[in-house]
Amino acid sequence: MSTLEKTIDLLYALPENQVEAIYSFVQFLSSQQKTEKPAVNESLDDIFKNIVGVLPDTGRTLEEYREERIRGKYEAAD
């Protein structure tokens, strides 16, 4: 007889309020489980390229990018 079958037999013998308490505890345990992500074998350079490569380097300064974004936002509103 498996552990699950033994547990089910024990649950049948308990009053319903105790079964509800056990169910709540099992739900809590289930919510605490952490799913482990498989290790990624990317090099640090590859990860950095993925992050940095979002914006191509056009030689503009941060202020120039900011001005373009703000100008575009207000021109689109007109």
Task: Outline the structure in words.
The chain has helices at residues 3-13, 16-32, 44-52, 62-77. The chain has 78 residues and is mainly α. The relative contact order is 0.05.
Output the helix-strand order.
Answer: HHHH
Helix content: 55-70%
* Average residue-wise pLDDT: 81
- Enumerate how many helices there are, as a single number: 4
| Biggest sheet descriptor | none
Query: How many distinct beta strands?
Result: 0
Task: Return Rg in Å.
Answer: 28 Å
Structural class: mainly alpha
Q: What percent of residues are in strands?
A: under 5%
Can you tell me the overall shape? elongated
**Low-confidence region ranges:** none
Distance between the termini: 74 Å
Q: Concise description?
A:
It contains four helices and no strands. It is an all-alpha fold.
Which secondary structure elements does this structure contain, and how are they paired or packed?
Blueprint: H1 3-13, H2 16-32, H3 44-52, H4 62-77
Key attributes of the depicted protein:
single chain, 78 residues, mainly alpha, 4 helices, elongated
